[in-house]
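Predicting holo structure, NAP bound.
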Amino acid sequence: MPKTALITGITGQDGSYLAEVLLEQGYDVWGMVRRASTESYERIEHLRDRVRFVQGDLLDQPSLTSALLQAGPDEVYGLAAQSFVPTSWSQPVLTAEFTAVGVTRLLEAIRQVNPAIRFYQASSSEMFGKVRETPQNELTPFHPRSPYGVAKAYGHYISVNYRESYGMFCCSGILFNHESPRRGLEFVTRKVSDGVARIKLGMTDTLTLGNLDARRDWGYAADYVRAMWLMLQADTADDYVVATGVTHSVQELVETAFGYVGLDWRDHVRTDPALIRPAEVDLLVGDASKAHGELGWEATVDFTGLVQMMVDADLERLS
Ligand code: NAP
Ligand code: GDD
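Done. Tokens:
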């Protein structure tokens, strides 16, 4: 009997890769989508005839209950969120409604429809914020530095609480930044790969960025969604850091991407104070020993390989 999974946020970067992994595993895959005047199915166009869709929104409790009743899942992957950190300062209340309280709405719907459903919560290294130790692991205290980070800390703890209060199988994956050619264009890796491709092809000459000193632990999204699936196959529900263990600055990202196509970044990159955040997360680097040891998870793509893959994909798309 094939298992059934429901993915919220299936139209996003991670949802698209996770759907591929679950289909490969023989799952019946359902995706929850928001109603929009223009569909945002670009990342899952190639999967459209293999996935079933149900409408729902994190703001609307009855739609979540209906989605669960319709799909009848064994596993729910809660990926939907307002996921862009700068927007969380301009829309802090909406970010809290989607990214924090939205998790409680989904958990309550699961508890009422079928508390045996296994649940994955898309937690974030942004919760570590102004880091208390380096590298960060599952026991590192949180100190979020944005309304997004605060909302994710809520989502993490409400998932832990539903596990501890009701015995529900809730896993919180504390994922560090993960990227791909399907990454949204506003996130820094994709902004850089897209900008480098445009400059290389003579479509523009300049790329304007914010803080070049911030450091991130960047991995490949297709690797990270495998960790989500592995968490829900474990004997007991738990929380896991997923990361490469290697950190690079935004400047190193820029050097690597421009250098790959034979350009000097100093000739093209400008900085704009308007892109500096009200509070910054200066350094993230994760210790994924628990995921390695207990789940057998490993990353397969390193930083240079990731940057080159993204630049190649944008060059091909724009050519
Ligand atoms: P993404 O590309 O921004 O996708 C977000 C998804 O959420 C989209 O499918 C979006 O639908 C959906 N969504 C937003 N608001 C919704 C609402 N009110 N109701 C229903 N659906 C809604 O994000 P991602 O990079 O795939 O990340 C997936 C999850 O992991 C997010 O929760 C993110 O915060 C978290 N996370 C990401 C990273 C990372 O580095 N990528 C790291 C740690 C944690 P539309 O297409 O309709 O907008
Ligand atoms: N977006 C962006 N645009 N970031 C820039 C820019 C720019 O022009 N210039 C410098 N940066 C810096 C930011 O200040 C930040 O320190 C770093 O690049 C990464 O920014 P993003 O790519 O926007 O990602 P993020 O780290 O804020 O958040 C992502 O990772 C989190 C996990 O730690 C998102 O995917 C979150 O949803 C995720 O939870």
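The pocket of guanosine-5'-diphosphate-alpha-D-mannose (ligand 2) is lined by residues 83, 85, 124-126, 176-177, 186-188, 191, 209-211, 214, 216, 250, 275, 277, 280-281, 284 (CB under 6 Å).
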